[in-house]
Amino acid sequence: MSVFLITGASSGIGAATARAAAQAGYRLVLAARSLDRLEALSEELGGPERALAVRCDVTEWEDQQALAAKALERFGAIDVVFANAGFGAPRGFQASTVEHWRSMVLTNVYGAALTVRATIDALRSSRGHLILTGSVAGRRALPGSLYSATKWAVTAMGEAARQELDGTGVRVTLIEPGAVDTPFFDNGAGPGSLQADDIARTVMFAVSQPAHVDVNEILVRPTAQSG
Fold this sequence. Notes:
With 227 residues, this protein is an alpha/beta fold. The chain has helices spanning 12-23, 35-44, 61-75, 98-126, 146-165, 196-207; strands at 3-7, 27-32, 51-55, 80-83, 129-133, 171-177, 217-220. The protein contains six helices and seven strands. The protein is globular and about 45 Å long.
């Protein structure tokens, strides 16, 4: 069975994708900072022999190295990597706090890059698939949104990784959701928004294509979203 590694796996899109990948027969490596929720999800998906829970702060290089090493030690390979960890901030360059900004930029950009760095050799070996969570906000700038800037960086990161991995057999996909009703939004994303399962199905569509098909970008909006 193939091995699917997910950061930000404890809730939202990450947890929904873990469930979809488990149903498709993958063994899982689940990473997040919240180990309690990860372990509960691991038990739901068959226990540590099928779904390994690993506490990982994606902004820490040592944690990312350990995550990749534990995945290889337990399962022998990494076939799919979903660099999904991230969070947002209120719009406005005088909103939020500078500490929140720093944590968001480090998680959304530096953390995603560290996930790529920590797993790229394993993906080359397996001729695997790298997936990154971008955003509609990474395709069109939002007023006063530093979060949007971080997702523009992820858009560029996906293309940069695709070019570096060209010819290796590794596929690279950028998933760009619109409004998704997940814990990302404190008060919900509103009526008509996407659900985490919708994005999980999108991820599984990309990974289920034949090996010669590389779906590079998928932009997904709810029908109720105008922007």
